[in-house]
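Pasting as-is:
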Amino acid sequence: MDPDKVILGIDPGTQMLGWGVVGLYGNKARYISMGVFNFKKEIDHFSKIASVYREVDALIVKYKPDELAVEAPFYGKNIQSMLKLGRAQGAAISAALNHNMPITEYAPKKVKMSITGKGAASKEQVATVLLRILGVEDIPGSFDATDGLAVAFCHCLNRRSSINEATSKSSLSGSAKGKAGGSWDAFVKNNPSRIK
């Protein structure tokens, strides 16, 4: 059975880029794949950025995700590192935009919090909890892979809570209008089959 939605998660980097793919089946998320791209052998920074774009584009073509979730560069003391991370993130985002995909960005603390309940969790803790939740038996050789998968799974959790919140708000507003008298003319017009 095909998933309702496929989410591609990216943990951007110009040295190593982690990625993960998760399928949404109703309210249940299932693991599809994950991996790492190593750009350390590229000749310069600009060839690394080109490779980021090319590899993310290839992932989109292969897995046909509906949405991209990408981790935001963290705020550190090294401005040069942040700038390079931002460029890598921009290249990944550009690849998704080229395919007209919706994009959501998540702060590293938000990803960790959604999976472990702790914003300061280590990469090891995130990987352990995530792999157990998704029932992944093949342990990847790099935490960059589980970081990419974590971003995708965080987006699944965030989507689910947004849908639940929207549904509850919709039902609340509908019942409030009916009970408070709201616009009965609009209700009758929009629901002719419910009026006898």
